[in-house]
Task: inverse folding
């Protein structure tokens, strides 16, 4: 009897699911703030079951999963999105991509977008592609101040968390902060003001476990090559002083075919200072103390000749 009730409830649940109209949702939801060129967002067909069909401006798309990913938004992505599940279509979701968000490039590896009436978020330390477990330092700047601003991180389709900013002064217009380590293939950051009426551009950092070769250079000469992202100095000598950089060849997890990508770090100069021998330090200290004692003795002797004993009470002048 109990088994029959469970089967009946299951049948009712399946029937309700089939009758439910699907709905298209967006994450992160920037529809009220505006979607900028280059933004990453996901569309999900909620409430349906089984295979999903996607439509863009009434044109059927090739995607059949319940999630449709827009990797880099462009004005061509503006339009109406709709999904279909179990023969039922959702209502259309309008998407408008703002193409006025210009891209300014600092160098061939780093860039940032400066958006109208918003703050600028850039990578201060790190690269757009990092090794799994690495971390980046981000820089947020807003000419109108950062009081009340907070940042957000999306480590998955529905894993959005808040990052609280600790300003030194209430009138600060920029801040550096370091989020948690990068443990997922793709992590997206952005920031908003107190009431979420304005936001910065997005920063997306990808991770790759497929570093093929990492090469370290000292003064343009190869000193190490392999799969390790760390080079350790075992014995520090003057010969280690010089300019260092590294070069990484890697492939993305989703694109392992074809030629690997290559990134080269900036040059960093390492200074090495010799240690002074202990005997030299002791001799220097003895000589210094001797000179100091002689100087104090001469000063006290001359002071005594001029004013007499230090404890002498001088008559107050009338």
Result:
């Amino acid at each position: 009897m109990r088994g029959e009730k469970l089967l009946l409830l299951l049948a009712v649940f399946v029937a309700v699911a089939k009758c439910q109209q699907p709905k298209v949702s967006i994450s992160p939801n920037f529809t009220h703030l505006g979607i900028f060129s280059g933004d990453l967002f996901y569309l999900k067909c909620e409430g349906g079951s089984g295979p999903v069909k996607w439509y863009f401006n009434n044109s059927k798309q090739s995607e059949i999963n319940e999630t449709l990913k827009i990797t880099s938004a462009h004005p061509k992505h503006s339009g109406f999105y709709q999904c279909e599940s179990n023969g039922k279509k959702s209502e259309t979701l309008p998407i408008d991509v703002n193409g006025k968000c210009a891209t300014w490039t600092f160098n061939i590896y780093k860039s940032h977008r400066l958006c109208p009436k918003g703050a600028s978020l850039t990578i201060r330390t790190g690269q757009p592609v990092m090794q799994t477990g690495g971390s980046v330092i981000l820089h947020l700047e807003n000419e109108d101040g950062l009081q009340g601003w907070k940042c957000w991180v999306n480590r998955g389709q529905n894993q959005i968390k808040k990052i609280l900013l600790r300003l030194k002064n209430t009138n600060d217009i920029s801040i550096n902060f370091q989020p948690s380590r990068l443990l997922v293939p793709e992590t997206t950051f952005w920031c908003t003001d107190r009431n979420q009426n304005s936001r910065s551009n997005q920063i997306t950092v990808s991770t790759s476990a497929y570093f093929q070769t990492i090469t370290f250079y000292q003064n343009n000469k190869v000193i190490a090559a392999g799969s390790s992202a760390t080079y350790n100095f075992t014995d520090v000598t003057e010969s280690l002083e010089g300019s260092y950089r590294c070069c990484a060849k890697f492939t993305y997890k989703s694109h392992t075919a074809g030629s690997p990508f290559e990134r080269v770090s900036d040059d960093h100069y390492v200074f090495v200072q010799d240690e002074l021998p202990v005997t030299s330090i002791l001799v220097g200290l003895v000589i210094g103390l001797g000179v100091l004692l002689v100087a104090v003795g001469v000063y006290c002797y001359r002071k005594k000749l001029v004013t007499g004993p230090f404890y002498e009470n001088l008559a107050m002048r009338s």
